[in-house]
Amino acid sequence: MKQRLTTAAIALIVLFVAMLFFETPVFNLFIGIVSALAVYELLYQTQYVTSKLVLVVSVAFALFFPMLYLKPFKHYLIAMAAFYLVFLGAMFLMRHEKYMLPSICTAFLVTLLVPVVFSVSIILRDRLYPDGIFYYVLALGGGWFADSGGYFIGSLFGKHKMAPKISPKKTVEGAVGGIVATILGYLLIGLLYTLYRSFMGEAIHVSYIMLALAAPVCAVAGILGDLFASVIKRQTGIKDYGNILPGHGGIMDRFDSVLFVSPVLYVFISFASFVTR
Questions:
Q1: CA distances from 79 to 28, 65, 85, 103, 134 (A)
Q2: CB 223 within 8 A of CB 146
Q3: For residues 88 and 101, what is the distance between their CA atoms, to the nearest angstrom?
Q4: Which residues cross the membrane (predicted)?
Q5: pLDDT, tens digit, for every residue of 222-258?
Q6: Among residues 26, 42, 124, 168, which is most buried (max CB within 10 A)?
Q7: Can you give the residue ranges of every domain in the chain?
Q8: pLDDT higher at 80 or 71
Q9: Is residue 90 a contact partner of residue 37, using CB atoms and an 8 Å limit?
């Protein structure tokens, strides 16, 4: 537990530093690094991809993809995705006796999906300025509040297994605790953001009703994302996606839920704003 809390504290400090540069290309690079590490874990640790060349190109793609959201490079987004698809197709044709189609398809899906989803934070920043950082914290919180609430409540009161064949430690009580924790967390984030903007001399109105409606949906999305990542680990026989975060595992062990929360939150924001001026 001590190691887990220490790692969490250090990770939060790194995240805080990255968010100080939220409105700069440095944050794009941060998202690129996280995406690259996640893609590496999903392809290498699981052994879905055994080709070193495919692995290197996939990780490089994930690293640089978030940088393409910067204005000078936006028109290269489709071109880069097309290049990566052609590269995988060429590798399959040249080494079809060694590389099976499922491996190539998995590489394409993972390498495209992960940086695109993680880059939702960049889209939120650019589209919803100056409130992008508020929505990004909600995206992270949707996964992490549900995970932390589920962990602690499940440890204390968990009796009924939720998905014993996928994740034996997860309980129905823990899931409920995670949803409640997310609702409370979202309301707290809304309050803190209102106070921050007020301190900066700007009056805003945060819709706590929208936060209360979005929170349980995002919490469920986070739980499903966690289970999705657990299924992959079960199928591939690995305990964790890596050891870069002692006590937690790999990047994917911490960000798996965010993969599902970010798109769900983006849908909510597309229909209704949480902040008005």
A1: 19, 11, 10, 23, 31
A2: yes
A3: 10
A4: 53-70, 76-94, 101-121, 133-154, 175-196, 208-229, 258-276
A5: 999 999 999 999 899 998 898 887 767 889 988 888 8
A6: 42
A7: 24-127, 129-277
A8: 80
A9: no
The CB-based long-range contact list for 86-91 (8 Å cut-off, 24+ gap) reads: 87/57, 88/54, 91/51, 91/53, 91/54
Cβ partners under 8 Å of residue 82, min gap 6 = none
Task: Take residue 84 and report the two structure tokens written for it.
Answer: 């990566």
Q: What is the per-residue DSSP string for 119-149?
A: THHHHHHHHSTTSHHHHHHHHHHHHHHHHHH
Q: What would the DSSP string read from start to end of the chain?
A: -HHHHHHHHHHHHHHHHHHHTTTSHHHHHHHHHHHHHHHHIIIIITTS---HHHHHHHHHHHHHGGGGGSGGGGGGHHHHHHHHHHHHHHHHHHTTTTS-HHHHHHHHHHHHHHHHHHTHHHHHHHHSTTSHHHHHHHHHHHHHHHHHHHHHHHHHH--SEEETTTEEEEEHHHHHHHHHHHHHHHHHHHHHHHHHHHHTT---EE-HHHHHHHHHHHHHHHHHHHHHHHHHHHHHT-S-S-SSBTTTBSHHHHHHHHHHHHHHHHHHHHH--SEE-
**Residue 82 CB: number of other CB atoms within 10 A?**
10
* CA–CA dist 139, 12 (Å, integer): 15
Tokens 């932390």 label which residue?
A: 148
Question: How many residues belong to the chain?
Answer: 277
